[in-house]
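We include the pair:
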Amino acid sequence: MLVSSAGLWGLGRQIDDPYRHSQLALLAATLAITSIAPGLAGADLDLDRVAGFAWAPRRAAHLLLGGALTAGLLALAVRDEATVSWIARDVAGLTGLIGIGAAALGASRGPLLCLLWTAAAIALPAVDRPAYRVILTWMMQPAGTTTATVTAVVLAVGGVLTYALAGPRR
């Protein structure tokens, strides 16, 4: 996370093009949030499943804390307030994708959903219609885009709930 934040700060000072700066910020956010994925599963999943306490709140807190730490570090590295809200939205959605990935694919392969969706969002131009393209490129949409914000919130809530209730896949 620290390396991604430092890279965003250093390279962001060299880039004046807002679109390229957005791509760089998205890559930094994706790299930073994927760093929490390996910690989403314990060494022995069978032992975790028979523990004498509830794992769901701990899992949710772990994922939310990782997302909040990522958003906070990246927010320190950017220049303007609009970019901070954009990063917060993207990190929230990426946190949900990490949770869905860990529950569906396992903690070691959890970042795949983030990386694939990020690659698609960077490869496709961010347009304002049709709706499916806005949803597909929600990470690259401007900060005030309602559809992108709703997509990020749905992914965040769905991902945290999925991971908290199902846990990591074996």
